[in-house]
From TrEMBL:
Name recorded for this polypeptide: Aldo/keto reductase
NADP-dependent oxidoreductase domain location: 24-285
Keywords: Oxidoreductase
Protein source organism: Streptosporangium vulgare
Top-level taxon of the source organism: Bacteria
Amino acid sequence: MTTTTRPAEASGQFAIGGDLTVNRLGYGTMQLTGEGVWGDPRDPEEAVRVLRRAVELGVNFIDTADSYGPFVAELLIKKALRPYADDLVIATKAGFTRQGPGIWTPVGRPEYLRQQVELSLRHLGVERIDLLQLHRIDPAVPVADQVGELALMQREGKIRHIGLSEVSVEDVEEAGRSATIVSVQNLYNLAHRDAEPLLEYSEANGIAFIPWFPLATGKLAAEGGPLAAAAKEHGATPSQLALAWLLRRSPVMLPIPGTSTVAHLEDNVAAATVQLTDAEFDALTRGV
Ligand SMILES: NC(=O)c1ccc[n+]([C@@H]2O[C@H](COP(=O)([O-])OP(=O)(O)OC[C@H]3O[C@@H](n4cnc5c(N)ncnc54)[C@H](OP(=O)(O)O)[C@@H]3O)[C@@H](O)[C@H]2O)c1
């Protein structure tokens, strides 16, 4: 197989936790559910096609969460991809409860996190979760209790690696007293770079940095958007430029663009083959 048929390979590789090697350009499953990340997708067959096509294109890092649906995205992954390829890494999350479309409430009580990890094992159809990310730190529960419960499940063999989501450097250091943190997932894209200090910390410590909203929920991918002119000049699409910039920004960067369609998926994965010149990278870094 070449990078033409498996373009995700051209994004380069990163070993999550030092032992789970993935192609850096992954896929995020949040768009596979209904409106407001609630309920079933409008087109369940297309959702299955998207997941299967992602793997065909060389994507072997898939991000999901118990709360997407809830459980809709995890069950779709199982339906579309099981039996799983040996090299496929599925990262899920726990820590958000759902009360309806667009409503997310963090709950980090240890017994709840344990329940959700047990349910994710069942819904994904795996014996061990490759990467379990604490979706949000619940401010009402000590961090040591939340991360400590995940560390306990890791020792029990139910979780391979532990990550965090939407955190500060201080959060990672605090959580690191209860478990080894191998990944962080924060809002980050060309237009939103508040997480820069966390990215630098991740680089210094070999932690995977998983930027969510890599396309600013589609705003950076829009034909008339801020990347349109530069994209035209390069002969790429705006979404490809946004993703190529992320891949170029850091070797620990693992973008997980989300989409509900095979056409957009193919567009996004092809970003792995887009090479930005130094001048283009600098212009995008300064200009967007
Ligand atoms: N940790 C967290 O708290 C957190 C929060 C949010 C998301 N996430 C994760 O991050 C992943 C990525 O975030 P996201 O999916 O919300 O946002 P995103 O990847 O920035 O953008 C997705 C949006 O862009 C559109 N899009 C995708 N590819 C496109 C293309 N080539 N051309 C035009 N439009 C395109 C999609 O619409 P179509 O469906 O029409 O393609 C969708 O509306 C999620 O799937 C999820 O796994 C994590």
